[in-house]
Amino acid sequence: MERNEVLISEDVRKITNTTTDALKMRLSKIHPNEKAETDDRQEIKVERLIELLSCLKLDQTRLTLKDLIMVLHKIFENDRVNIEEIHSLMSSYKSNPAEWLKYAKFDRYRYTRNLVDEGNGKFNLMILCWGEGHGSSIHDHANAHCFMKILAGTLCEIRFEWPKDDQKTEGEISPMKEISRKVLHTDEVCYINDSIGLHRVENLSYSNCSVSLHLYCPPFNACKIFDERTGHSSKSKVTFWSIHGERDKNVSISRMITKNKLVCDLN
Q: Range of 236's domain?
């Protein structure tokens, strides 16, 4: 099995003759800042998504969050799914706050992970909420695939090389090497796995909050976090702040959208 594929069952291989110019145009604009794919690969990707949407009788010109979840479940019934296909599907969903606000739970002091769907144990779909200035530790993904889509605001993804532990002597300090950094805007999608490297995600704004949609496959409940100054790692358990929009009744957190600016209202 190649690194960019995930095993799943096989039963959605029927190719339909359906064509949708609107969907093709949207998919052709998914990676405007990256090298364009060949026409053949792009056509195959478009036809696969059209096939899935047609089989599920979904509106091919506009996916809702509910539609996205339904298509993901269908894809993960198959025997294999290409990572590029998931990337394209995540990109084809256009953020609609009315669909995801019920999952957006903020904390005053740190970013939160809010479970949206368990994916029948094959993937986790969640919404992460980032208050002003919030950021993650440098971390790996426990050999899972990670997709991140910006739903509101902007986030900065900073990638790092893996520390070269085998070259360290006892007590040696070796700062981690940054590979790249990129600011992601609403509706942009990025992908990472452990073979690509490690990353940290930050909300660089001190006046606006941000919200992101994440898909992890397979799901995991622990990962490694890293000290940027030394390269030393430790194990960290990952938990959910809320599940399906439900949180402890003693915690009151609300959110609202005003004039395209996400405002965190923490009571």
A: 98-266
